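Entry 14: structure prediction run for Lipid-A-disaccharide synthase. Input pasted below.
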Amino acid sequence: MPPRIAMVAGEASGDLLASHLIRAIRRHLPDAEFFGIGGPKMQAEGFDALWPCELLAVHGYVDALKRYRELSGIRKALLARIRRERPDAFIGVDAPDFNLWLEGRVKAAGMPAIHFVSPSIWAWRGGRIRRIARSVSHMLCLFPFEPALYEKAGVPVSYVGHPLADVFPLFPNRDEARELLDVPRASRAVALLPGSRQSEVRNLADIFIGTARLLHERRPDLLFLVPLATRETRQLFDEAIHRNEATDLPIRMLFGHAVDAMTAADAVLVASGTASLEAALLKRPMVISYRMGKWQYRLMKRMAYLPWVGLPNILCHDSLVPELLQDDATPEKLADALEGWLADPAACQALAERFTDLHRDLRQGTADKAAAAILPYIIGAEECRLRALI
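Run finished. Output C-alpha cells:
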C-alpha cells in the first residue's frame, strides 16, 4: 500500500507551505497519498481536500465563538476518519487552535502527529508548551531560537528555516520593482502597509494617512505606495483618504504588490506581523506600528515575554527598527521615525547588512528539511538511513 498522510492547513499561507511540503515528500515517496483539510495549492499537488482550508479562517474571538460548533464538528469528523483509516502520519500546518487538539488525539491513538510552524510560545506567557508536549510527536520550527525551548520541554524538534527566506532573493532588485510599479528611479518613495485584515486597516488608516501628510510637508517629492490585499481593505483605505481630505497627497493604492512596493520603497511603515519579516528579507528600513482595542492591548502587554513585537527585532534580538504601538502610534512620532531613515543612508546600509545576515540564517531549504524530519515517521529511520535521507 502507498503511504497515506493526513494533513490540515489553515488559510492561504498554510496552503502554500503545505503544498511545498507535499512536493518535497513526493520526491522521496512518489506514490504517497495526502488527504484532510487544504486549499487549491495543495490540491494542485494531488491533495484530497475533504474540506477547504478557508473554513479555518476565523477572525478574532467573536468569530471563533460563533463558528465553534461548525469547526468542532469538522474536526471530530476528520478525527473519526483518521482513527478508522489509520494513516502513516498526521501533519498539522499552522492553525494551532484547531490542530493541537487533533494532534493530541491522533498521538494518543498511536499515530505520529507532527506540527509544522511553532506557535509563538516565545512571545506569550503561560503553559502552552506543556500542552504541545502532550500533543505532538515532532515540532518543526521556522526560527533558529525556537528548538531550544522545545528541547527543554522534551519535545522532539527540528529547525527547518523560514520559507520566505528561500523564496526572496538575497539581494532584491530595486530597479526592477520600480520599473514594474512605474516609480521613477530618482524619486523617493515610502511604502505604507496598514495590514491585511479589515480591522487592522480601520485602526491604522487614519494614522498612516496623517503620517503621509506630515512627511509630504517636509519632503514634497515623496511618493506613497499603499498595497492592499482585498477589495474591502482597499475601500476602507480609500474612505479614510476622503475622510481626512487627503486626495491631494501623492498616494498610489495598489491591488496586491506588497513585496514590489516594499522593494521599491526607501522606507516602509508596516503593521506588525509577517509583513515586517518580509520587509527585513527585502533589506528595507522600516517603522513597525500597531493599534488594537484598549483592553486587548493591556491584556497582551501583560502576557508578553519579550520587549519587542516586531519579528525583525525579535529574530535579531536587538532594537534595530522603531516599534511605535498603541498610544505611541501617532502621525508625529511615525513621521519622525521614518524621517530618521530617509535622512541617514549610512544607518540604512548598516541595517541592510544585519538583515542580510538574518536572511542567510533563515534560508535553510524549508520544505526539504521538513520532509527529511517527517520521513522517519512514515517509512522508518533505518529505511531513511539506507536511502541516505537523514
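Notes: The first strand starts at residue 4 and ends at 9. Will compare against the previous run tomorrow.
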